[in-house]
Amino acid sequence: MWRGDAASRALGMSLDEVGPGSATVSMPVRPDMVNGWDLCHGGLIASLADSAFAVACNSRGAVTVASGFSVEFLEPGRLGDVLVAEAREVSLRGRSGVYDVTVRAGGRVIAEFRGRSRSLDRRIEPPA
């Protein structure tokens, strides 16, 4: 899944770690990612968290998609920051899951994200 994720790649994200129900994805804040207040655009912070969530909820080998998410912005990301999103599985019942993602820059918590997932009830096919 990550190999074909052109959107995450275009934003300069890197997959740093993945395990059962967890993932860590990072992204440097570039000049083209700041808004009119010279802060990282909130949509890009949400995109980073969503990418970590996607990897975590697909890490068990079932094709899984988002059914929704919410995000709380706590501090701004700034030009030059390296944002790190750590996703962890909170609950997995049948085809539904809940995942929390914390986005940090250094020691600062930038955002808290909660994602809801739904498995499509089929296995991820290995790349050809």
TrEMBL record:
InterPro entries for the chain: Acyl-CoA_thioesterase_PaaI (IPR052723), HotDog_dom_sf (IPR029069), PaaD (IPR011973), PAAI_dom (IPR003736), Thioestr_dom (IPR006683)
CDD domains: PaaI_thioesterase
GO molecular function: acyl-CoA hydrolase activity
Domain Thioesterase: 40-108
Domain of life: Bacteria
One Pfam family per UniProt: 4HBT
UniProt keyword terms in alphabetical order: Hydrolase
Family of this protein: Belongs to the thioesterase PaaI family.
NCBIfam families on file: PaaD, unchar_dom_1
The name this protein goes by in its record: Phenylacetic acid degradation protein PaaD
Biological classification of the source: Bacteria, Bacillati, Actinomycetota, Actinomycetes, Pseudonocardiales
